[in-house]
Amino acid sequence: MTDALRIHWDDALTRYDFGQGHPMDPVRLRLTRDLVHALGIDALPGVRVVASPPAGDSTLRLVHEADYIAAVRRVAETGEPDPGRGLGTDDNWAFAAMHEASALIAGQSVAAAEEVWREGGHSVNFAGGLHHAHAGSASGFCVYNDAALAVARLLELGAERVAYVDVDVHHGDGVERAFWNDPRVLTISLHEHPRTLFPQTGWPEENGGPDAQGFAANVALPPGTGDAGWLRAFHAVVPPLLRAFDPQVIVSQHGADTHVEDPLAHLAVTVDAQRAVALAVAELAAELTGDRWVALGGGGYAVADVVPRTWAHLTAIAAGHPVDPQTPTPEDWRAEVTRLTRALAPRRMTDGGTAEYQDFDAGYDPADRLDQAVRATRKAVFPHHGILP
């Protein structure tokens, strides 16, 4: 595992702010950045904190339509909604910095992709991972799809095989759609079942366009899935597919909204399992890509108790120096949490989980709903890569 890491951060990223009362409170970004600093992760050998410029229109057009970019600017300037493009809606409230802040987030992820391709190593943008935005519309709190833009830049730079792994509780629909018929990109999404959660897509049968069958993999998890099931599903699908695909770069999205305390979804995962998946992705990047890894944030609406710890763990893992789960959270940081959110901060970097699971290939239960979900994905995708389901 590399010890070369760029952390992409600019205080202006917190301007991605839909307003008071919206679930995507930018305090989650500030508290993450401050926890990373309080734990000394940003001072580790080989770690640099960098701020890149916003993505320009030519870069945004790698994924987004020019008319849509113009519409984002217009809504930001006037405050007038454009519901046909998902702007100024119940999910995506209009705000004055909508274009600038969204382009700044995108700029960090695109720069992260460029650095990883040209220099190797790891880059983290925990403000990124806005995976629902589509070519011509905002969706699910996402205005510009920085994750898809990072992948598109890698292809523009000459990458021939890019893997995108999304473990947010919601289906990574915008990224999947952007590369639906492109066999240079393998998208894998583990998410709560579309019957019970937005965006109601990501069925196992949705496995890619006519020229890219098997290059979209969707694991639709039953509500209530906890650590053991979530990790079992991840390891049953992600490592075998990545090894068969042999990516040159991994881009991963680590939405923290799989957590049991998240108010917008119905899984029951702990910070400890989220940490274990980040470790697994890091190990796969080291094994398969020459250690080229772009790690992004995503959803997560338990803004004080969960998101900062999950993404601080992610950042430390990307730095090659994982934080011991039993580590106390720094006292000054806990005081800041209370001051900013009026909530009590978690006292340790763990929820007390074990991150244990049973390997799927050791045997599965055909009557178990989680195993049914895993089996459906493997049947839909694995044969296209020459793997037995």
Automatic annotation (TrEMBL):
Domain Histone deacetylase: where? 22-316
Lineage, top-rank taxon, reads Bacteria
Task: State which pathway it belongs to.
Answer: Ketone degradation; acetoin degradation
The record's listing under SUPFAM superfamilies reads: Arginase/deacetylase (SSF52768)
Family assignment? Belongs to the histone deacetylase family.
InterPro entries tied to this protein: AcuC (IPR003085), HDACs (IPR000286), His_deacetylse_dom (IPR023801), His_deacetylse_dom_sf (IPR037138), Ureohydrolase_dom_sf (IPR023696)
Could you list this entry's UniProt keywords, alphabetically sorted.
Answer: Acetoin catabolism
Q: What is this protein called?
A: Acetoin utilization protein AcuC
Q: Which Pfam families match?
A: Hist_deacetyl
Q: Which PANTHER family does the entry mention?
A: HISTONE DEACETYLASE HDAC1, HISTONE DEACETYLASE HDAC1-RELATED
